[in-house]
UniProtKB/TrEMBL annotation:
<keyword id="KW-0998">Cell outer membrane</keyword>
<dbReference type="InterPro" id="IPR003423">
    <property type="entry name" value="OMP_efflux"/>
</dbReference>
<keyword id="KW-0732">Signal</keyword>
<keyword id="KW-1134">Transmembrane beta strand</keyword>
<feature type="compositionally biased region" description="Polar residues">
    <location>
        <begin position="70"/>
        <end position="83"/>
    </location>
</feature>
<dbReference type="InterPro" id="IPR051906">
    <property type="entry name" value="TolC-like"/>
</dbReference>
<feature type="region of interest" description="Disordered">
    <location>
        <begin position="70"/>
        <end position="91"/>
    </location>
</feature>
<feature type="signal peptide">
    <location>
        <begin position="1"/>
        <end position="19"/>
    </location>
</feature>
<comment type="similarity">
    <text>Belongs to the outer membrane factor (OMF) (TC 1.B.17) family.</text>
</comment>
<keyword id="KW-0472">Membrane</keyword>
<dbReference type="Pfam" id="PF02321">
    <property type="entry name" value="OEP"/>
</dbReference>
<keyword id="KW-0813">Transport</keyword>
<keyword id="KW-0812">Transmembrane</keyword>
<protein>
    <submittedName>
        <fullName>TolC family protein</fullName>
    </submittedName>
</protein>
Amino acid sequence: MKKAILFFLLIGLWTVSKAQGLLTAKQAVEIALENNFEIKLSQNDLKIATENVSYGNAGMLPTATANFSQSNSVQNSKQTQTTGEERSLRNAKNNNLSVGVSLGWTIFDGLGMFARYDQLKELQKQGEFELKKTVLNRVSEVISTYFTIVEQQNLLLAIDSSINISKERLKTAENRFSIGKASRLEVLNVQVNLNEDESSRLRQAVVVKNLKITLNSLMARELDIEFDVEPEVEYDDTLLIDDLMEKAQHYNPDLQMIAINKRLAELELKRVKASRYPVVRLTTGYNLSQSESSLGFVSSSNARGLNYGITASMNLFDGFNQRRNERNAKTQIESADLLIQQQQLNVRTAISTAFQTYQTNLSLARLEENNADIARQNLNITLAKYKIGSISAVEFRDAQENFINAVSRFNSARLQAKLSELQLKEIIGNIDL
């Protein structure tokens, strides 16, 4: 009879597997990494941060400007000269034209430009870790949803096998009724049980379908794409807390981003201190100017040539704002140190609690696996006894429900073990398949 139950399970597996094709957990992750909208948005943020890392954005390169201006006027003019002579002209025209190119270059600003450039590079690193964190979150979500489908699909297969067994029970009950060894009431009870199993299957099928829609959404593809999943939830039972603590120091994105925040605070202090020093700027340019006047001592003039120079400025007193800004920058560094210590404590706490949950779930998975084997054996024995009429339909139904419940708990325990493993790997910042 054990072979019969196995046959029913294989029939259920074949019925499901003929849908569209197997989608592995690795393939689901790859599709999500390629299509997921949040990952694409983080990638765009990183592109912007990368583009911002330039010498020009830091103020280290010269700036060149082209200038052009022309003004015209038509006026009624009247002039009284020093000799007393008066001159007047109606509709006097005046034209002024100026064309030039100017170049400016700040060659020293207290090394503030170098601090700004380093800040831009740190912001780029911050964008990389933001992307990594987004990828970790989405990968974790995809994997947890995928293996939840595996768990619920296995439960659906168990219900299918239960339906097949109930159909066999119904045939047996009808045969016994036809030869007078069972009452009509027993046949009706078995029929009710079969209807209950089919109702459970409909509800469970909806659960699986909705989970597949969710996974398709995470992969950013058509929601109605049908797929099959792997038959088993495989989990890693070899994780060690010391290794997890060590890896978290190197891979945890939150710790890495907080370290960058401290570096940014240190660079901000350098940039603020640069205001204590003079700013030296070189300027040069080439200009052409031309003017015409209908009335005046000079009827037209033009000039062209090169101009150049150097300017220097230094803040002598700004109402103690420089001192205030430096103090605030130092306080930001102290706050960054405190945040690093706080985040390190948070990570250690999260790993410790998650590891305890992980160990408990591993133990539960082993226990429920044993319970599922016992429930399967009990169902086989009960089915054989029911066929020879040594037990009642009610007793067999209890064994059947115990089997479904045991399989459900076993699937749930394996899923929880996988999810707790996934949570630990997400905390340390290194998820592998």
